[in-house]
Amino acid sequence: MGAMRKLLRWMAGFGLVFGIWRMAAVPMPRSRSSGRGRLSHVPSAEAMREGFEVRDLSARGLAYVLLGLGSSAATLIGIVFGLVALFTHWDRMGDAHFTLAQRAVLTAPAPRLQTYPMVDLRRERERELRGIDGYAWLDAAHTRAHVPISRAMALVDGHSLDESP
């Protein structure tokens, strides 16, 4: 696996460097084939004056650059897949020394606060209604009393609660 990676890296580097060198170092003659079987013509003075391109791109140099880029991409993809496989293997081997009991997934039981919550709610409401609808002393000296709401409303009805002068 390591030798293959080295070979791919070397090929990618060589292809990229050689392609760039070919494009930059080798001048294009003016009477070179255009790729269609005909010789390129010498550019006119007007084309030179307007700044048009006067030479073609080297197809061989471009092919070397593309080959280098492709092999670099293939090398990187291979490295990524290799690292994913390696990390997956390490992850699997990391749990190998635990026992089955240590690797078991534990779930907490649901809280059991009330066995019958509706019964408890009914009892609480009845206790509160007894306090509202009944008579009771509010202090130990029996100076303040609690009366039912309906009786308190009848006593207060028509009388102001504010002290008048």
Quickly give the structural class. Answer: mainly alpha
Give the overall shape.
elongated
Mean pLDDT level: 77
Query: What is the ordering of alpha helices and beta strands?
Result: HHHHHEEH
Total helices: the number is 6
Radius of gyration: 47 Å
Question: Beta-strand percentage?
Answer: under 5%
Described by strand count, sense and barrel closure, the largest sheet is:
2 strands, antiparallel
Q: Estimate the helix proportion, in percent.
A: 55-70%
Count the beta strands.
2
Our count of domains comes out at: 2
Q: What strand order characterises the main sheet?
A: 1-2
Q: How far from one another are the termini?
A: 105 Å
Uncertain spans, ≥5 residues at pLDDT below 50? none
Describe the protein's architecture and organization.
The protein has 165 residues and is mainly alpha-helical. It has 2 domains: 2-98; 117-156, no CATH class. Helices cover 58% and strands 2% of the residues. The chain contains 6 helices and 2 strands; from the N terminus they run αααααββα. A hairpin with a 7-residue loop joins strand 1 and strand 2 (145-146). Helix 1 (2-25) runs antiparallel to helix 3 (59-94).
